[in-house]
Design a protein that fits this description.
It contains 16 helices and 15 strands. The model has no long low-confidence stretch (mean pLDDT 96). The relative contact order is 0.11. The protein has a 9-stranded mixed sheet, sandwiched between helices. It folds into 2 domains: 248 residues, TIM Barrel, CATH 3.20.20.70; 60 residues, no CATH class. Bound molecules: iron/sulfur cluster.
């Protein structure tokens, strides 16, 4: 089985913190869709096209800039080339694009999960982020999901913004909860050097909040959501039981996936070995349709690398990692130094180890990145 990721590299405007690959000029949208269809067709009758596709994720960029005709072209191509048995088809939507009619239209293509980029309901925070939508548009978009009877959705929130008090964050979470979200992704604001935010921080015009304050906001998110039965299942992801994201969870489990569009990543592991590659982040090149020449960062991954990745990704989730799976699939066993370290962290209450699995406790998940680096350094 496999997953498909489709990257739509267009946005109305550049959010100040964003380092995804996108363009704000829209003229090339149709030529891009034509190239995308051709890239999808390069997989026809290959070993990749025979594995049943269990999840499709259309991200970006801003997929909700696509018209019905463009979506039809893309989904027709996917249907033509792949065997589809999807259990989840997600599309990222920006609130300013969403209407009940648009939501009904994307249902026609099988999209059953909307990923809504809310981020905040505070105008001053939205302005600081340079988001294209307003508070009212975010509210209308969430209402539209209910009016359209959309099957499922997730909403993104960003905390740790300069000037964002805990009270403001709490109001954001509570307002979002009024829409009964099955799933929420909450990210702390990250300062990437090549973004507008990164440059302003470098010039000293913006002072990001202290780590302790950000950690406090994370706790506020986790505890408020937990009161509503929305539990953390990964470092940045929270869901009602059974509503965890299928597509992203499969990344963490090393399920195969193919990425289409500039900057998209792919991973494929079969009897011929495990490979990862990325499409260049370059629309101009993409339009030339040399899809093999487009690939960069191609890697052949050995079992040890894969096992360490599995440990790293698994330990960021509430499920942790099954030791039997590590041995069977990756031929990997924890060494005595790692086991000793795990026993120590178990006594400290950060790790929960049984005879068959190892996972982080709630406390451990808060500092999982540090703990994972420590564990892997003993490998
Ligand atoms: S809409 Fe999303 S992809 Fe586009 S600039 Fe903003 S954060 Fe980045």
């Amino acid at each position: 089985m496999s997953g498909i990721y489709i990257h739509i590299p267009f946005c109305k405007q550049a959010c100040s913190y964003c380092d995804f690959y996108f363009l704000t000029r829209q003229q090339l949208r149709q030529p891009f869709v034509d190239s995308l269809v051709e890239e999808i067709f390069t997989y026809r009758n290959t070993k990749y096209s025979h594995a049943p596709v269990k999840s499709i994720y259309m991200g970006g960029g801003t997929p909700s800039l696509l018209t019905r005709q463009q979506l039809r072209q893309i989904f027709d191509a996917v249907h033509n080339v792949f065997v589809l048995e999807p259990v989840e088809v997600t599309m990222e939507l920006n609130p300013d694009d969403v209407t009940v009619d648009y939501l009904r239209m994307i249902r026609e293509f099988g999209v059953d999960r909307a990923s809504m980029g809310v981020q905040s309901f505070h105008e001053e925070i939205l302005n600081f982020m340079h988001r294209a939508h307003s508070r009212d548009e975010a509210i209308s978009a969430l209402e539209a999901l209910h009016q359209a009877g959309f099957p499922s959705f997730t909403a993104d929130l960003i905390y740790g913004n300069p000037g964002q008090s805990n009270g403001m964050l709490k109001k954001d979470i509570e307002l979002l909860l009024e829409f009964d979200p099955p799933h929420i992704s909450a990210y702390s604001l990250t300062v990437e050097p090549d973004t507008r935010l990164g440059k302003q921080v470098k010039l000293g015009r913006i002072q990001p909040p202290e780590d302790e304050d950000v950690a406090e906001q994370f706790d506020l998110v986790a505890s408020t959501l937990s009161e509503y039965g929305i539990e953390q299942y990964e470092v940045s992801n929270f869901a009602k039981p059974g509503k965890e994201a299928v597509h992203n969870s499969n990344y963490w489990k090393h399920e195969n996936y193919l990425g289409f569009g500039p900057s998209a990543h792919s991973f494929w592991w079969d009897g011929e070995g495990a490979k990862r590659w990325k499409n260049r982040s370059d629309l101009k090149f993409y339009l030339e349709r040399d899809f093999i020449g487009m690939r960069e960062d191609q890697e052949d991954l050995d079992l040890k690398t894969l096992a360490e990745e599995r440990l790293m990704l698994g330990l960021r989730t509430k499920w942790g990692v099954e030791l039997g799976e590590l041995k069977k699939r990756y031929g990997y066993e924890l060494n005595p130094a790692q086991l000793e370290w795990i026993n120590y962290q178990t006594k400290s209450g950060l790790i929960d180890k049984s005879s068959s699995s190892v996972k982080m406790t709630h406390e451990g998940l808060r500092i999982s990145d540090l703990l994972i680096v420590d564990l892997l350094s003993k490998g």
